[in-house]
TrEMBL record:
Pfam families: dUTPase (PF00692). Its cofactor is Mg(2+). Its EC number is 3.6.1.23. SUPFAM superfamilies: dUTPase-like (SSF51283). InterPro entries: dUTPase, dUTPase-like, dUTPase-like_sf, dUTPase_trimeric. The lineage of its organism: Bacteria, Bacillati, Bacillota, Clostridia, Halanaerobiales. This is Deoxyuridine 5'-triphosphate nucleotidohydrolase. One of its GO terms (molecular function) is magnesium ion binding. The gene is dut.
């Protein structure tokens, strides 16, 4: 699939896969910023993308940042809708115990582009039965 992308800063790499077959492409920071413990901040990527209709871009955390630094995507999963044409930003939060410094060009998140189905609701008086029923929030029957 080919997707239109506009780089606002030529120094910032385009999203890229680190290994053949990876699902997520690393996306990079277009700015330097420091997040104190507990602080959240919008980090701009210097990119605009044209996600095709019936697809969405999903911004996911980088597991290494979460494990090593306690930094993750606050609104995971962030969604880039097909009609959005503004600069992509990543909302990060520092759950770690010390300040986290983001440098321009650092890998800050992952982007996965997926096909999505458009839903049309069919209102009914009663839902069809399922094996699980109404059990939720840990009620799968297994401990």
């Amino acid at each position: 699939m080919k997707i239109e992308i506009k780089r606002l800063d030529d120094e910032i790499p385009l999203p890229d896969y680190q290994h053949a077959g990876d699902a997520g492409m690393d996306i990079y920071s277009a700015e330097s910023k420091t997040l104190a413990p507990g602080e959240r901040g919008l980090v701009m990527t210097g990119l605009k993308v044209a996600v095709p209709e019936y697809h969405a871009g999903f911004v996911y955390p980088r597991s290494g940042l979460a494990l090593d630094e306690g930094v993750t995507v606050l609104n995971a999963d962030g969604v880039i809708d097909p009609g959005y044409r503004g600069e992509v930003g990543v909302l990060l939060i520092n759950h770690g115990q010390s300040e986290f410094e983001i440098k321009k060009g650092d890998r800050i998140a992952q982007l996965i582009v997926q096909k999505v189905e458009e839903v049309e609701w069919k209102e009914v008086e009663k839902l069809s039965r399922s094996e699980r029923g109404e059990g939720g929030f840990g009620h799968t029957g297994k401990n």
